[in-house]
């Protein structure tokens, strides 16, 4: 074993320059995956950098150590659960779905606020805003005068606004 007086970064640079291309070809031959080969070479050189004693070895011993580490990384990747359960694809995702978390949470808050209304007010508000009925249609559906339907809608919306304010949704 020879001890080189150069700093570790210089030794690693020299090790990379001397062995990286051959190491990349070796791993590419084992995996047939260019991206994986790049990752394995990078991880192998990081491990060499973390062990300064490797950098100070004779060139043939350092090369053997690098190829052994690379082969072990390839074997570990092949045995990993990720490799056995995940299937990569170059095809784009067919349809991207937007995140609906905020809409779901808003729906829960509104449903909770609606539950706090009287049944008469809740029915009129739901008929008007979720079912899209007009005041005359609501009056006919529930057998009440139009003025009563309009009044229930007004007071129901006011109570709903207060309930949402209590939950911190509106000002």
TrEMBL record:
<dbReference type="InterPro" id="IPR036388">
    <property type="entry name" value="WH-like_DNA-bd_sf"/>
</dbReference>
<dbReference type="Pfam" id="PF04542">
    <property type="entry name" value="Sigma70_r2"/>
</dbReference>
<dbReference type="InterPro" id="IPR007627">
    <property type="entry name" value="RNA_pol_sigma70_r2"/>
</dbReference>
<dbReference type="InterPro" id="IPR039425">
    <property type="entry name" value="RNA_pol_sigma-70-like"/>
</dbReference>
<dbReference type="InterPro" id="IPR007630">
    <property type="entry name" value="RNA_pol_sigma70_r4"/>
</dbReference>
<keyword id="KW-0804">Transcription</keyword>
<feature type="domain" description="RNA polymerase sigma-70 region 4">
    <location>
        <begin position="113"/>
        <end position="161"/>
    </location>
</feature>
<comment type="similarity">
    <text>Belongs to the sigma-70 factor family. ECF subfamily.</text>
</comment>
<dbReference type="InterPro" id="IPR013324">
    <property type="entry name" value="RNA_pol_sigma_r3/r4-like"/>
</dbReference>
<keyword id="KW-0731">Sigma factor</keyword>
<keyword id="KW-0805">Transcription regulation</keyword>
<dbReference type="InterPro" id="IPR014284">
    <property type="entry name" value="RNA_pol_sigma-70_dom"/>
</dbReference>
<protein>
    <recommendedName>
        <fullName>RNA polymerase sigma factor</fullName>
    </recommendedName>
</protein>
<dbReference type="Pfam" id="PF04545">
    <property type="entry name" value="Sigma70_r4"/>
</dbReference>
<feature type="domain" description="RNA polymerase sigma-70 region 2">
    <location>
        <begin position="17"/>
        <end position="84"/>
    </location>
</feature>
<dbReference type="InterPro" id="IPR000838">
    <property type="entry name" value="RNA_pol_sigma70_ECF_CS"/>
</dbReference>
<keyword id="KW-0238">DNA-binding</keyword>
<dbReference type="InterPro" id="IPR013325">
    <property type="entry name" value="RNA_pol_sigma_r2"/>
</dbReference>
């Amino acid at each position: 074993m020879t001890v080189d007086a150069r700093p570790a970064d210089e030794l690693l640079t020299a090790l990379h320059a001397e062995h990286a291309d051959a190491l990349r070809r070796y791993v590419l031959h084992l995996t047939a995956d260019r991206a994986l080969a790049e990752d394995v070479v990078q991880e192998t050189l990081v491990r060499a950098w973390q062990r300064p004693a490797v950098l100070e070895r004779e060139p043939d011993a350092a090369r053997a150590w690098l190829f052994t580490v690379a082969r072990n990384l390839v074997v570990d990747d092949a045995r990993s659960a990720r490799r056995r359960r995940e299937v990569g694809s170059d095809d784009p995702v067919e349809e991207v779905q937007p995140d609906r978390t905020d809409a779901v949470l808003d729906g829960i808050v509104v449903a909770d606020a609606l539950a706090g209304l009287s049944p008469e007010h809740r029915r009129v508000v739901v008929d008007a805003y979720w079912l899209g009925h007009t005041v005359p249609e609501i009056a006919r559906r529930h057998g009440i005068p139009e003025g009563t339907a309009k009044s229930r809608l007004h007071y129901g919306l006011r109570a709903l606004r207060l309930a949402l304010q209590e939950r911190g949704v509106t000002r």
